[in-house]
C-alpha cells in the first residue's frame, strides 16, 4: 500500500503553528478525526502518549512520526502537517521538529500499513525531499511530491525485476557486500527502517556496499543470506530487542542501540571497516546471553535486574495502590487490629491488592532468570521466587506454617532470579551432549523438571541464611532514628536525581518498593518509600519553578516545556526533567540532587510514611503526616530552583 493511499486531503494541514509537543499531538489527532480514521479520540490519543512514554518518535532531522496501533482505529491512515517555525518535540537530536506524520493502525487485522510506513521512513531520510515538503504551498503539491518520491524510491514490482540483474552485476563487480546490518526496535515501526536507511545512505556516501535487514512489526525484510554473512567484513546489529544471532558465529559483530544506527552510521560502518568490532561467538544459549558479548559484567547484571524489575512494577504499583486505597476507605475504629478489612469495600481492595503483591517476588525472580536463560529460565526463577517469598526451609517443610516462616524477601528473590538463570544455562550445556533424538524432550521435560528441582533444593537450603540477612537488614532499618534516618532519607532522595531513570535512580526506587514487601511492613518501611517518592518528585518541580521565576535562564521552547513539569513532578514522573538534564547536565543535575536530598531528609525528619509505591500527589490521602510531606516536597523543589538560578546563568540576548 502506497503512502498516498493512506493520506487524504482532510488529514493534511500545512503551515501549522503549535507551541508544544502536546499541541502538536492534539492537532494531528484532530486531523485523524477529520479523516474518519478513528472513532474514539481520547482512546487513540492515549495510545499515542503511551508510545511516547516508551521513547520519543521525534527521530531527528526535523521529522516526527508518532504512531499507535489502537482499538479506536477503524481503518489504517496517515495524518500529516508542516510546522515552519518548528516545535520542541523532544527529538533524539534535540532540534525542533517541523514535518510530522502520524500513523493510525487498527488493533486487529492486516498489517498492510506497515509496508507504507517503512516507505515513509525511507523517503524522509532525504533532506532535500523533506525540505520540499516544508515548502509545499498546497495539499495537491504536497501529495504530488510524496507520490513522485515514492515512485522514485520504490518503482513497481515489474520494474524492480528488470533492475535486479543490473544491481547484481554491480555487486558482482564489487566482489561482495562488505558490511551487513540488522536493525530492530521494540515496536518495529519507524526507528527500525530509519536506522536501515541511514546506514545504507551513509554507506553509499563512503563508497561501501551495505545491506540492511529490518526486523519490523511486519516481520524480517531483506533477510541476510548465509552466503552474504560468510563473505562480508562484519555485521552491525543496531537493535533494542533480541534478534537471531547464531548465524553470525565467528564474524566481526558490532552490537549497539537502534538510535546509533540513525545518528552515528558513519562511526558504526568505520568500526567494521577498521576491524575494531569484537568477534562474535555463539554460545548455543539464549539470545539475551549472546547479546552480552562485549558487555561488562556490571552492565549484564543491570540489564537482567531491570528485566525483572520492569515486569514486577505493574504488580507493585497496582497492588500497592489498591492496598493504600483500602486503608483510605476503611474505618479503623471498628477493629484496629483488622484495619484495611473492616468494611466490604476495603476488604475487597485489600484482598485484590495483596494477591497482586504476592506475585511480586516470583515475577521478579522469574524474569531475571528469563533474561539470563531465555524462556526455559522463567519457570525456574518463578518457583525460586515463590520459595523465597514463602520462607521454606528443610526445617519447616514437614509442618509448614506461613505465620512462623521467615521470608528471605526481596534479597532472596534476587538470589533466586540470578541463580535460576545460571542453573538453566548450566543445564543447557550439560544436555548439549545428549543424542539429537532427545532434542524435543529438553524444553518440555528435561529443562523444567531438572531446573525446578535443583532451584527448589538450592532455595530451601539457602533460605535460612538469606532470611536471616533480610531480617537483619529490616531490624537495622527499624532501629534507625534521628540523624541516621534523616541521612538515609537524604541519600535515597539524592539518588533519585543523580541519573533520573538510570541505575542510581532505579536502585533507590527498587530499595524503597522492596520495603513494602516486608512481612508486617510498618512505619519504618513506609518512611523509606515516602523519602524515595519525595526525592523523585523534586527534579521536575524544581525545573518548572525555575522556568517560571527565572525565565531568562531558558529558551522560549524550554519555558513552554517547563510548565508540563509541574504535572510530571506532582505525578512522581521524574523523567520529565530528563530533556533539561540531558541538554545541560552540569547546571541542572547538581541543583536537582540537592533539592531531592533535602526533600528526602525532611520527609524522614517529619516521620512521613507511604504504603503505596507510586502515585505522587494523588495518594496524599494515604500518606502519614500529609501536610509535612507536602512541605518537604515544596521546600526541596524551592531549594532546587534557587540553586539552579545560580548554576544556570542568564542567556545572552
Automatic annotation (TrEMBL):
Keywords: Cell membrane, Membrane, Phosphoprotein, Phosphotransferase system, Sugar transport, Transferase, Transmembrane, Transmembrane helix, Transport
Domain PTS EIIC type-2, first and last residues per copy: 301-653
Cellular component GO terms, alphabetical: cytoplasm; plasma membrane
PANTHER family membership: FRUCTOSE-LIKE PERMEASE, PTS SYSTEM 2-O-ALPHA-MANNOSYL-D-GLYCERATE-SPECIFIC EIIABC COMPONENT
TM region(s), chain numbering: 312-331, 352-372, 378-398, 405-425, 445-469, 476-498, 526-550, 562-582, 588-606, 627-647
Pfam families: PTS_EIIA_2, PTS_EIIC, PTS_IIB
PROSITE patterns tied to this protein: PTS_EIIA_TYPE_2, PTS_EIIB_TYPE_2, PTS_EIIC_TYPE_2
Highest rank taxon of the organism: Bacteria
Organism: Anaerostipes hadrus
InterPro entries: Bacterial_PTS_Sugar_Transport, PTrfase/Anion_transptr, PTS_EIIA_type-2_dom, PTS_EIIB-like_sf, PTS_EIIB_2, PTS_EIIB_2/3, PTS_EIIC, PTS_EIIC_2
Name listed for the protein in its UniProt record: EIIABC-Fru
Domain PTS EIIB type-2, residue spans: 177-274
Membrane topology: Multi-pass membrane protein
Compartment annotation: Cell inner membrane; Cytoplasm
Lineage: Bacteria, Bacillati, Bacillota, Clostridia, Lachnospirales
Name of the coding gene: fruA_1
A molecular function GO annotation: protein-N(PI)-phosphohistidine-fructose phosphotransferase system transporter activity
Gene Ontology biological process: phosphoenolpyruvate-dependent sugar phosphotransferase system
Amino acid at each position: 500500500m502506497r503512502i498516498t493511499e493512506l493520506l487524504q486531503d482532510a488529514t493534511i494541514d500545512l503551515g501549522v503553528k503549535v507551541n508544544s509537543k502536546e499541541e502538536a499531538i492534539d492537532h494531528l489527532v484532530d486531523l485523524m478525526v477529520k479523516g474518519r480514521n478513528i472513532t474514539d479520540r481520547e482512546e487513540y490519543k492515549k495510545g499515542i502518549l503511551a508510545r511516547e512514554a516508551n521513547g520519543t518518535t521525534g527521530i531527528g532531522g526535523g521529522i516526527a512520526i508518532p504512531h499507535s496501533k489502537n482499538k479506536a482505529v477503524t481503518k489504517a491512515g496517515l495524518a500529516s502537517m508542516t510546522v515552519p517555525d518548528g516545535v520542541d518535540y523532544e527529538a533524539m537530536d534535540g532540534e525542533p521538529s517541523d514535518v510530522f506524520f502520524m500513523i493510525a493502525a487498527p488493533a486487529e487485522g492486516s498489517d498492510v500499513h506497515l509496508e507504507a510506513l517503512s516507505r515513509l521512513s525511507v523517503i524522509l531520510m532525504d533532506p532535500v525531499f523533506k525540505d520540499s515538503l516544508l515548502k509545499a504551498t498546497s495539499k495537491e503539491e504536497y501529495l504530488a511530491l510524496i507520490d513522485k518520491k515514492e515512485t522514485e524510491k520504490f518503482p513497481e514490482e515489474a520494474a524492480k525485476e528488470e533492475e535486479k540483474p543490473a544491481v547484481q552485476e554491480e555487486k558482482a563487480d564489487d566482489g561482495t557486500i562488505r558490511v551487513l546490518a540488522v536493525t530492530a526496535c521494540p515496536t518495529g515501526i519507524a526507528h527500525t527502517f530509519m536506522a536501515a536507511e541511514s546506514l545504507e545512505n551513509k554507506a553509499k556516501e563512503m563508497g561501501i556496499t551495505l545491506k540492511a535487514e529490518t526486523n519490523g512489526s511486519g516481520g524480517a525484510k531483506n533477510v541476510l543470506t548465509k552466503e552474504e554473512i560468510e563473505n562480508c567484513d562484519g555485521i552491525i546489529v543496531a537493535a533494542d530487542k533480541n534478534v537471531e544471532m547464531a548465524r553470525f558465529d565467528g564474524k566481526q559483530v558490532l552490537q549497539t542501540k537502534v538510535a546509533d544506527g540513525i545518528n552515528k552510521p558513519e562511526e558504526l560502518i568505520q568500526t567494521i571497516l577498521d576491524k575494531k568490532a569484537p568477534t562474535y561467538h555463539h554460545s548455543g544459549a539464549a539470545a539475551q546471553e549472546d547479546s552480552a558479548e562485549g558487555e561488562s559484567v556490571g552492565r549484564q547484571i543491570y540489564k537482567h535486574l531491570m528485566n525483572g524489575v520492569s515486569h514486577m512494577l505493574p504488580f507493585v504499583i497496582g497492588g500497592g495502590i489498591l492496598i493504600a486505597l483500602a486503608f483510605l476507605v476503611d474505618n479503623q475504629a471498628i477493629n484496629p487490629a483488622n484495619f484495611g478489612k473492616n468494611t466490604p469495600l476495603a476488604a475487597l481492595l485489600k484482598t485484590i491488592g495483596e494477591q497482586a503483591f504476592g506475585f511480586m517476588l516470583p515475577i521478579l525472580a522469574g524474569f531475571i532468570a528469563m533474561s539470563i536463560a531465555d524462556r526455559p529460565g522463567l519457570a525456574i526463577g518463578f518457583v525460586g521466587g515463590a520459595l523465597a517469598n514463602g520462607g521454606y526451609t528443610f526445617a519447616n517443610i514437614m509442618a509448614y506454617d506461613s505465620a512462623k516462616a521467615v521470608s528471605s524477601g526481596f534479597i532472596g528473590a534476587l538470589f533466586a532470579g540470578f541463580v535460576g538463570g545460571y542453573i538453566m544455562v548450566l543445564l543447557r550445556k550439560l544436555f548439549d551432549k545428549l543424542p539429537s533424538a532427545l532434542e524435543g524432550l529438553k524444553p518440555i521435560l528435561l529443562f523444567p523438571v531438572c531446573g525446578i528441582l535443583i532451584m527448589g533444593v538450592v532455595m530451601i537450603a539457602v533460605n535460612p541464611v538469606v532470611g536471616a540477612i533480610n531480617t537483619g537488614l529490616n531490624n537495622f532499618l527499624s532501629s534507625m532514628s534521628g540523624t541516621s534516618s534523616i541521612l538515609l532519607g537524604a541519600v535515597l532522595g539524592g539518588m533519585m536525581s543523580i541519573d533520573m531513570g538510570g541505575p542510581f535512580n532505579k536502585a533507590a526506587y527498587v530499595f524503597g518498593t522492596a520495603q513494602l514487601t516486608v512481612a508486617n511492613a510498618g512505619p519504618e518501611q513506609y518512611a523509606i518509600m515516602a523519602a524515595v517518592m519525595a526525592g523523585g518528585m523534586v527534579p521536575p518541580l524544581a525545573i518548572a519553578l525555575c522556568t517560571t521565576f527565572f525565565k531568562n535562564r531558558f529558551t522560549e521552547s524550554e519555558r513552554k516545556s517547563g510548565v508540563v513539569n509541574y504535572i510530571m513532578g506532582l505525578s512522581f514522573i521524574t523523567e520529565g526533567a530528563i530533556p533539561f538534564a540531558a541538554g545541560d547536565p552540569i547546571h541542572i543535575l547538581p541543583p536537582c540532587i540537592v533539592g531531592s536530598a533535602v526533600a528526602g531528609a525532611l520527609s524522614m525528619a517529619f516521620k512521613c510514611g507511604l504504603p503505596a509505591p507510586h502515585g505522587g500527589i494523588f495518594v496524599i490521602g494515604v500518606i502519614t503526616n500529609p501536610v509535612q510531606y507536602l512541605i518537604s516536597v515544596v521546600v526541596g523543589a524551592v531549594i532546587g530552583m534557587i540553586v539552579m538560578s545560580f548554576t544556570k546563568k542568564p542567556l545572552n540576548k
